[in-house]
Every structure is written in C-alpha cells, then in structure tokens.
C-alpha cells in the first residue's frame, strides 16, 4: 500500500502537466488512468478499514460510548473536573447539567451553535463520513468517480473532510480551493459529460440554478468567448436552448449523463431538496454524505440507494446523548439515553459533550429514530426546537408549519414550493 502511495505522489506532477495540454478532447493518458487507479485503490482500502471499524464499534455501542466518554473526560481542560478517569454515566449526568448555547455564542457563530466538539473528534468522524460516503456512492453510481466526472458548483463542499490528493484523480473538476461561484459554474458548463454535481447545501444549489436562469445569457456569452475553437460556442448554444425550455429537467438537458446530486440536506433543507427534485434536478438521485450540526459531523450516510435523509449516529466520535421528546417538547424529568437505548419511532433532541469546556450542549436538532445499524440508531432530521410562530398566542412548530404549507401548496394546481420565510405580523391586534 505504501508503494502505491509513493508511486502516486511521484506521478502526480507529471499527470498535472499532462492535463494542462491545450486539447481538452484528447484521450486521457495512461498516466492519468494509472493515477486514478492508484488513488481509488488507496481510498477503497481506507474505506474498507473504516467500515470494519464502524461495524465493530456499533456492535458494542455501549462499550464504544464508554471509550468516547473516557476520551472526552481525559481531554477536559476545565479546572472543575473531578470526573477525570471516571466513566460512570450517572455521576457524569449529575455533575454536568444540560445547557444551551448562549445568545452571545449564537451571534458569534452567525446564528449557529458553536461546535461542541474538538477539532480532533470532528476530524475523525468527518474523515469516516467522507471515506464511507465515497465508497457508498461508488457502489451505487460506479461511473460518478471517473476522471472529470464530477464538478462542484459552490465554494463550499458537501464532503466533511477535504481529501485534496485524490480529488483530481477521482473526478473532481475545477481548481482546488476555488471561491468564485461564477467560475465554478462556468467550469461545470464547459463539461457536458458530467455525471455528478456537488454543492455545499441544497439551499446553495437552489441559488445556483436560480442564478443560472437569471444570468443565462451572460454565462452563454462567457462560454462562447472562452475559446476560439468550435466546442465552446456550440456549448453556449446548447445552454441557450436548454434555458429556453424552462426549469423542469434543466440539469439533465445541460448534462445528459448526470446521475446524482451530492449535497448536504439536513437541518432545514427539505424544501430546497424538494424544489430541486421537482424542477431543475428532476429525474436525478440525491446523496447527502453526512449529517452536519453546529459545525461538526454527528451522522453518517451509508445508503445512497435509500430515501435521502437517513443517518447513522456513530458511537465513537463525539459523545452523543439523546434527550427524549414528547409532542415536540422535552419530557418532564426525562433523563438522556445513550445510543443503544434509543427506541424506534421516538423523537429525541441531540446532546453533545464539549471536552474543552466540559458542557453537555443541547443542539436543538430533533431527530426521529427510523431503524438501527447493529446497536446504533438510524435517524432522520425532523426540525429545530425553538423555531415557532405565534399568530394568536399559540406556538406552531417548524415541522407542523412546513407540513401544513406543503399540503396547501399541493392543493394549488401547478404550484411548486421553492422556499419560504416566516414573520409575525406587526399590524395584528
């Protein structure tokens, strides 16, 4: 394995130089194909090791969470840490009461809760999510990771852990670290043979397609002016023709070989995913590699062939507890439960423990247990607590309102819900 990695590193500069040749229509050289095989072989080996590790940790979830708690307490930097060395869950709960992030923390992090886990723990789970997600995606759509088969159209990436060295070899099109959304979109438009589109979140991808419709003529002119040859002007004409036919199925008209859209969909992205699937990305599969909450990864996506939005809560990274909910509110005097104690069909609020400040932070994310992987729960995101409306003094939860809005739109012939915003009326008595 080490020999393969060294070979890849030696061949990388030559492959990059080869790919900078003017002719983009030339066949891939044997060197680029070899680079792809070596990179994919290394990634498959790492993913297989991660899957084996995940299977072992989930098979004995209680023991795995004990080890996660021990690591958390050993790394505590708080002076009030008599718990160091102890993993008694009762003492742990009694000594560290549940807390919420303060308003100041939310403001400092742009409206999101501060990450409750260290960079080390986030990195471990993020790497696991990326490796297992790539392997799962390749199993379902094996042609997606072919060279130059994937393009990212937003500055942010849906993959939680950056893997810069195999990206060029595994199909990622475009310059690494690019920050200009327009440049990323143009790069994708130049490549009609794409098999996958990547975007940081579904909302960001929705903005990309709305911008594509609004600025279509400018993008077509930029395409036509990008190369004196015949290929890009022809591509500009294809873009104009595709836009003239409207938004429905636009992605497949622009990229006929497209198979999947890779984007994060948890945490208030449901409407954007539904809108993309009904219009621009009609006929395409969606895959979300991870469940990211409050700056960290808490869930793994292992089943691209299943309905999107299902995540496994792993036991070995950040220490996760589940706070039982009843009808959208916390059950009175209900203690948290560990992963192996979660019950199918019940809803819980996620609780993560920060080893730096030794706080048990209620994230506000509500999930429902829909299944199990060994002893660990498989969940779907439901809503965020505290997101309520009040028209006449009542509290209407986000999930209730979204469901009602969806039903209302369904009764309006020809209407499609793209997005929505809510505000209480200041003119009502």
From TrEMBL:
Keywords: Signal
Domain GH3 intervals: 212-277
Signal peptide: 1-18
The keyword Ribosomal protein appears for this protein: no
Ranges where the GH3 middle domain occurs: 312-384
UniProt GO molecular function: acid-amino acid ligase activity
Entry-linked InterPro entries: GH3, GH3_M, GH3_N
GO cellular component: cytoplasm
Descriptive protein name: GH3 domain-containing protein isoform X2
The organism of origin for this protein: Physeter macrocephalus
């Amino acid at each position: 394995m080490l020999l393969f990695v060294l070979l890849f590193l030696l061949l990388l500069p030559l492959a990059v130089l080869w790919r900078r040749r003017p002719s983009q229509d030339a066949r891939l050289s044997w060197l680029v194909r070899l680079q792809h095989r070596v990179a994919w072989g290394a990634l498959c080996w790492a993913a297989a090791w991660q899957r084996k590790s995940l299977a072992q940790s989930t098979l004995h979830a209680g023991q795995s969470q004990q080890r996660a708690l021990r690591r958390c307490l050993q790394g505590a930097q708080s002076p009030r840490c008599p718990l160091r060395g102890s993993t008694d869950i009762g003492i742990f709960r009694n000594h560290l009461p549940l807390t919420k992030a303060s308003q100041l923390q939310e403001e400092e992090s742009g409206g999101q809760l501060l990450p409750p886990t260290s960079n080390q723990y986030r990195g471990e789970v993020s790497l696991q999510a990326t490796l297992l997600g790539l392997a799962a995606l390749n199993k379902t759509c094996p042609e997606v990771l072919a060279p130059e088969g994937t393009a990212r159209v937003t500055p942010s990436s849906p993959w939680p852990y950056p893997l810069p060295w195999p990206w060029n070899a595994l199909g990622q099109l475009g310059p690494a670290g690019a920050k200009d959304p327009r440049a990323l979109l143009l790069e994708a438009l130049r490549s009609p043979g794409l098999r996958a589109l990547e975007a940081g979140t579904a909302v960001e991808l929705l903005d990309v397609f709305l911008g594509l419709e609004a600025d279509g003529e400018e993008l077509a002119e930029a395409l036509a002016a990008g190369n004196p040859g015949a290929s890009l002007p022809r591509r500009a004409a294809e873009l104009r023709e595709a836009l003239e036919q409207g938004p429905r199925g636009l992605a497949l008209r622009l990229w006929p070989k497209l198979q999947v859209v890779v984007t994060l969909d948890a945490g208030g992205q449901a409407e954007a995913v539904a809108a993309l699937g009904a219009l621009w990305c009609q006929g395409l599969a969606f895959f979300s590699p991870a469940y990211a909450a409050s700056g960290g990864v808490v869930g793994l996506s292992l089943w691209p062939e299943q309905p999107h939005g299902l995540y496994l809560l792993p036991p070995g990274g950040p220490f996760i507890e589940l706070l039982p909910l009843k009808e959208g509110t916390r059950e009175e005097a209900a203690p948290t439960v560990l992963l192996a104690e979660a019950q199918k069909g019940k809803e819980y609020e996620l609780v993560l423990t920060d080893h730096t400040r030794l706080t048990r932070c209620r994230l506000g994310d509500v999930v429902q247990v829909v299944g199990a992987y060994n002893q660990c729960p498989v969940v779907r995101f439901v809503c965020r607590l505290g997101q309520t409306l009040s028209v006449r003094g009542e509290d209407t939860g986000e999930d209730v309102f979204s469901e009602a809005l969806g039903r209302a739109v369904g009764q309006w012939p020809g209407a499609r819900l793209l997005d929505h915003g809510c505000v209480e009326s200041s003119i009502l008595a």
